[in-house]
């Protein structure tokens, strides 16, 4: 059984790839960032820019 995340961040976005990249970088740069306790869900609403690629690589 996998451990449930302590915190889930849901990000709705549409064609805002540059903002999403900065936001994901900001989350990762947090002093207390612990990847196994955090879940990030990005809903890109069928964006036509690089949003999906950034969300997958972020």
TrEMBL record:
<dbReference type="InterPro" id="IPR001173">
    <property type="entry name" value="Glyco_trans_2-like"/>
</dbReference>
<dbReference type="Pfam" id="PF00535">
    <property type="entry name" value="Glycos_transf_2"/>
</dbReference>
<keyword id="KW-0808">Transferase</keyword>
<protein>
    <submittedName>
        <fullName>Glycosyltransferase</fullName>
    </submittedName>
</protein>
<dbReference type="InterPro" id="IPR029044">
    <property type="entry name" value="Nucleotide-diphossugar_trans"/>
</dbReference>
<feature type="domain" description="Glycosyltransferase 2-like">
    <location>
        <begin position="8"/>
        <end position="57"/>
    </location>
</feature>
<dbReference type="GO" id="GO:0016758">
    <property type="term" value="F:hexosyltransferase activity"/>
</dbReference>
């Amino acid at each position: 059984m996998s451990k449930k995340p302590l915190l889930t961040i849901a990000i709705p976005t549409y064609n805002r790839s540059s903002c999403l990249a900065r936001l994901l970088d900001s989350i990762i740069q947090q002093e207390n960032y612990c990847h196994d306790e955090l879940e990030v869900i990005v809903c890109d609403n069928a964006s036509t820019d690089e949003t999906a690629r950034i969300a997958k690589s972020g």
